[in-house]
Amino acid sequence: MTSSTAPRPDAAPRRRLFHRKSPTAPLPRYTVSAERHDDALNVSWFTIARRLPRLSGIAVRLAWQAAPRVVLLTCLLQLITAAVTAIGLYATTSALTPLLASGATPERIGEALPALILVTVAACARSLVSALTVATTARIGPRVDGIAEARYLEATTRVPLAAYDDPAWSDQSEAASRAAKDAHQMIEALTSVTGAVLSIAAAAGILAHLHPVLLPLLLMAVLPRGFAAVRAARAAYLADRHTLADRRLRHSVIFETSSRDHALEVRAYTLRPWLLGRFRTVAARLEDAAAEVGRTTARHQLVGDAVAGCATVGVYAALLWLAATGRIAPAAAGTAFIAVQLSSRLLAGLVQGVNTTYKTGLYMADWDAFLTDTTTRTHLPEHPRPVPADPQVIEARNVTFHYPGSELPALQNVTVRVRRGEVLAIVGANGSGKSTLAKLLAGLYTPTTGTVTWDTTDISRTDPEQLWRRLAMLPQHFARWPVTARENIVLGQETGKETDILTAARAAGADTVLDSLPDGLNTNLAPSWWGGRDLSGGQWQRIATARAFYRDAPILICDEPTSALDPLAEEAVYRRIQALAKGRSVILITHRLGSTRTADRIIVLDGGTITEEGTHEALLARDGTYATMWRAQADTYTGDKV
Ligand SMILES: Nc1ncnc2c1ncn2[C@@H]1O[C@H](COP(=O)(O)OP(=O)(O)OP(=O)(O)O)[C@@H](O)[C@H]1O
């Protein structure tokens, strides 16, 4: 399996999408990382027949999990449909035999009447059972989607963070999320396939019973269209896979163009033409792909219909000949005629069903493979080591770390230790590896080589969820959760005492923010929803800081905690961090060197390696990078050279 989404130079779309006021924009054409089913068009019928049960099995298992009784009911309804079809056809022969015989018309009709009533009852029963099947299937669909989506979400929230940096995983994730949303289609399709197959089998059984030659004749009429359907499905699926990257791109272009977060820059930078140009480029590419699928499907359908049409004419001619030469009874020929017509109608459902089953089934296989791959990536240790409840020392030893797909290490041979009760400040230029080191110490990434230990426990051998329960982290890019202020602070923990929430808020300077909100802690901070309120950047940072302070964890990591705060709030937050360090290990990443003065130790990172380590005074005395940065910052305050 290849694993990259390397951009290729964009080729101009072959045809125009729609009337455009603004031009299309150059947009990289990404390749899809894992073309797992590229062989789908080339495989033999035998392979498809072999694959279909497995593909169907995934959906059937989901359906069974969702509603076993409803599945059983659906199967029962399918069997009833087939039985009613057989009864209807059998009754047709019984009705035709007296009708086509010689004798007085009233007598012949009288003789055929019970069979005619049976034919009518069978037709009504078929319609009723078919309606019941639709209602029953509709009950399973949403539950199946729900289970498939929940399992997708469980996998994505469990997978190590590094997976999100891997384009191959992101591609798979897109395919799996699409499959999970459409799982119900597979169930509907399978139901119609089973129903049609059983009914056609019933028709075939009756025909075989009437005369052995009728069965091959029926198959001749129905098979060509079925073959065409499967070919069209494979072509459509492959085209879908090849446009996966473009569909991801289109989602992100739509999001970037219309989201609230980007709305200001869209206007201030007059981005409309550029963004719409990007959208039109990717939409045109998708339009071209869809048109290609349409052409392929039409070609297969046309060939299938032509062959099926010829075969049907041949079947009718053969029936006439068999009846005319007395080889089969006229009533049997009449029933065969009706059976071929009925089967052709059923075939329409079967064709559609096989089409969807195969296509959706391949996506369900992607979903299944994604869950397996994600579980493999999650690789929890079989017997996880317990995480120390109150670690005394957190240590990275000879740690080197590469982001997925990145040749240069973000960290190289880093050894660092932070003890309980200590504040370790990490400083350095942009991109020097500060956040990466913090994430490794927190177990959010696993080192490529080297170890991170909490006390003597190698954290790669622990259960990460247990580890993260001992962690309070204020990341550089914190999330603005669209929930209440209270939930934003308590986030993921049981709602504790109101006084604890307010204490954390006060320590983070968020108390004044809460005072300004109409419903205080209960104010909804989802500005895109009715009644929701937004906050300023600094106010959000105070809430996010309160979130980290509220969490009573032995390890506190603050990554640029005051980047948006006013000077007074900044001062208060650093004081609080200092106070919190008493019972904790604190890792502080900051460019505000004023705040590092009181840190117990400072490390300076440069290009992923530690170049200096010591106290503020020791590093100033050393007159290295730290001293240079300190002086540069001091100059901006004093206006003098220090
Ligand atoms: N998800 C990622 N995938 C690939 N490379 C990454 C990723 N995140 C960071 N990097 C790279 O790793 C290096 C270290 O990044 P890191 O975020 O740790 O720097 P930093 O010192 O925290 O920077 P800043 O001061 O700008 O926040 C940088 O070269 C960056 O480009």
TrEMBL record:
It is a multi-pass membrane protein. GO terms for molecular function: ABC-type transporter activity; ATP binding; ATP hydrolysis activity; ATPase-coupled lipid transmembrane transporter activity. It holds the Pfam family ABC_tran. It is found in: Cell membrane. The keyword Flavoprotein does not apply. InterPro entries: AAA+_ATPase (IPR003593), ABC1_TM_dom (IPR011527), ABC1_TM_sf (IPR036640), ABC_transporter-like_ATP-bd (IPR003439), P-loop_NTPase (IPR027417), Type_1_exporter (IPR039421). GO terms for cellular component: plasma membrane. Residues 72-359 form the ABC transmembrane type-1 domain. Its main location: membrane. The chain crosses the membrane at residues 70-92, 112-135, 187-207. The keyword Protein biosynthesis does not apply. Keywords: ATP-binding, Cell membrane, Membrane, Nucleotide-binding, Transmembrane, Transmembrane helix, Transport. Gene3D superfamilies: ABC transporter type 1, transmembrane domain (1.20.1560.10), P-loop containing nucleotide triphosphate hydrolases (3.40.50.300). Residues 394-632 form the ABC transporter domain. PROSITE patterns: ABC_TM1F, ABC_TRANSPORTER_2. Belongs to the ABC transporter superfamily. Lipid exporter (TC 3.A.1.106) family. This is ATP-binding cassette domain-containing protein. The lineage of its organism: Bacteria, Bacillati, Actinomycetota, Actinomycetes, Kitasatosporales.
